[in-house]
Write a structure and sequence with these properties.
This protein has helices at residues 2-19, 34-43, 69-80, 93-101, 162-169, 181-190, 200-209, 236-248, 251-262, 272-315, 325-342, 356-363, 365-382, 407-423, 452-468, 482-487; strands at 45-48, 53-54, 58-60, 66-67, 84-87, 107-112, 121-123, 128-130, 132-137, 153-157, 174-178, 195-199, 215-220, 225-232, 346-353, 388-394, 397-403, 426-428, 431-433, 437-444, 474-476. It is an alpha+beta fold. It folds into 4 domains: 2-128 and 226-262, 3-Layer(aba) Sandwich (D-Maltodextrin-Binding Protein, domain 2), CATH 3.40.190.10; 132-220, 3-Layer(aba) Sandwich (D-Maltodextrin-Binding Protein, domain 2); 269-315, no CATH class; 325-487, Reverse transcriptase/Diguanylate cyclase domain (Alpha-Beta Plaits), CATH 3.30.70. Strands 11-10-12-9-13 form a 5-stranded mixed β-sheet, sandwiched between helices. A 5-stranded mixed β-sheet has the order 16-17-15-20-21, sandwiched between helices. Strands 6, 7, 8 and 14 form a 4-stranded antiparallel β-sheet that branches. A hairpin with a 3-residue loop joins strand 2 and strand 3. Helix 1 (2-19) runs antiparallel to helix 9. The protein starts with a helix and ends with a helix. Mean pLDDT is 84; it is low at 1-10, 12-29, 264-271 and 482-489.
């Protein structure tokens, strides 16, 4: 725990020191040329766009007001420039990039330079440097390089400047974009992602705001986010003006902004005499413990393997290898809460093998077990995205949970799956039989009033409708009524 706190503190201090570095300024650093003054008079106002959901760096609050570190920098810029600065609201960061690319915005106060952005933006020199990190669950080891996890699914915020740089440096890395830090970190919590990439400030802020105490910063990665002001490429005078203005903001003002939003605190001064004494004691104890460690290492490895196997058994159904009901109960609430907060579509599909008792009676229970294994394998082939989770709910009943797939797309996937299973014969010990399934599914953005019990009941009722209509088919829960939608804030 001490090591982790020290890592976080050192990274936050790095942000403060790098961004607050003193610039050697000349008294005339903000003197504009006649051409620049004429440009400002002709413009009358400068429009800017921000990322509306990127605290602590920048965001729009409930009243659509600009907040965060970049808001404080814009306030300082407005005092240095003889022209009004006007915020142009946007839906998300991608929308902000599109607005400045089409000249509907004049500049972005906080942007990272990338090869693709060089095609439509000019950048000032960086004025804020933010460490790049990865967040994982507490059980994961410290990471020094992304080559260690190239086979694992890794999340990143959509539009993050490092995406194209990571793709170039680690072409085999499985990067999955998410619309928010909260959404991606919840996927890390649920085990669907190995980790989530981002900058130290945003990840620390999100972990703290959402009280995700079971996640940690697992490593600082190569390359910091060097943030500049990006302005439209067709007006180079604007970039020159903004460069002069940003250079005029002194170190004290920058430090005040860092202290307000990054909240770097120092508890006490390090006593290095005590530190060296502690190191000496640890070295002596380590030497004394070497013999004991060598004698017990084999036993410890066996114990870790047994614990890993026990954890696997506690979460998975032994016959099919899918997650079991106990694990499902703990994850369904998380998926529902995520979709309600982020207004994402949630799928809960109950899948039941038709006439399974008859299959057991006519072909035997061993054939029935093979039928369940065959069905589970086909499920894993067709629903293998990181946001999909498959569960053996009980007997011949299975459940699919999926986050983020729109209802029309999910309907096509489920209907196609019904047909695939019906056309794929189950074979075992010389016997062959074609089986079918019925599916009842909830595929909607869940209202805030919906709880887990009601969600399961809706899917179960839809399953019985599919059964009563002749089986071998899908039935979806009807969309919520306008009255229900009206209750949502």
């Amino acid at each position: 725990m001490v090591k982790g706190c020290g890592l976080i503190l050192s990274m936050l201090v790095a942000i403060a020191l790098l961004s607050a570095g003193s610039q050697a300024q000349q008294p005339d650093a903000l003197l504009f040329t006649a051409e620049e003054i004429a440009y400002l008079k002709q413009k009358q106002q400068l429009r800017y766009c921000i990322d509306p959901n990127w605290l602590p760096f920048e965001a729009l609050d409930a009243q659509q007001k600009h907040i965060g570190m970049s808001a404080d920098y814009v306030t300082l810029l407005s005092r240095l420039l003889p022209i009004k600065l006007q915020l142009v609201p946007s839906k998300d960061w991608s929308d902000s990039l599109s607005l400045v690319a089409t000249q509907k915005c004049d500049f972005l106060p906080l942007a990272m330079r990338t090869p693709s952005r060089d095609t439509f933006l000019l950048f000032t020199k960086p004025y804020l440097s933010i460490p790049s990190v990865i967040a994982t669950t507490l059980d994961k080891p410290y990471l020094e390089d992304l080559h260690q996890v190239v086979t694992m699914p890794i999340g990143i915020r959509r539009g993050f400047g490092f995406i194209e740089l990571y793709h170039a440096q680690y072409p085999d890395l499985q990067i999955i974009p998410y619309d928010s830090y909260e959404e991606g970190l919840l996927q890390v919590q649920s085990g669907l992602l190995y980790g989530f990439l981002g900058n130290m400030g945003s990840i620390s802020f999100s972990l703290q705001q959402n009280k995700m105490t079971n996640l940690k910063i697992s490593g600082r990665l190569t390359g910091d986010s060097e943030m500049s002001i990006g302005s439209r490429i067709d007006e180079p005078l604007l970039s020159s003006i903004l460069q002069k203005a940003i250079l005029r903001i002194d170190a004290n003002a920058r430090q005040q902004i860092n202290n307000q939003w990054l909240k770097v605190q120092f508890e006490h001064k390090v006593d290095y005499r005590l530190w060296w004494l502690l190191v000496t004691v640890v070295l002596v104890l380590s030497m004394l413990g070497c013999w004991f460690y060598l004698k017990t290492s084999t036993l410890n490895r066996a114990l870790r393997l047994a614990n890993s196997e026990l954890e696997q058994l506690s979460q998975h159904d032994p016959l099919t290898g899918l997650y079991n009901r106990q694990y499902f109960d703990s994850k369904l609430q998380q998926a529902l809460a995520l979709c309600q907060r982020q207004q994402l579509p949630l799928t809960l599909a109950m899948m039941d093998l038709d006439n399974f008792k008859q299959v057991n009676d006519e072909c035997g229970h061993l054939f029935g077990d093979q039928c369940l294994r065959h069905f589970a394998a086909l499920c894993l082939q067709n629903f293998q995205r990181p946001q999909d989770m498959l569960v053996r709910y009980g007997g011949e009943e299975f459940i699919l949970i999926s986050v983020g797939t729109p209802a029309p797309d999910m309907k096509k996937l489920l209907e196609a799956f019904v047909g695939k299973f019906a056309a794929d014969a189950v074979e075992w010990s010389g016997q062959q039989r074609f089986c079918t399934i019925s599916i009842g599914a909830y595929c909607q953005v869940p209202p805030l009033t919906l709880d887990v019990k009601q969600l399961l009941q809706l899917a179960d009722e839809a399953l019985y409708v599919a059964k009563n209509r002749g089986r071998d088919q899908l039935h979806l829960v009807a969309p919520a009524s306008p009255e229900t939608n009206a209750e949502q804030p």
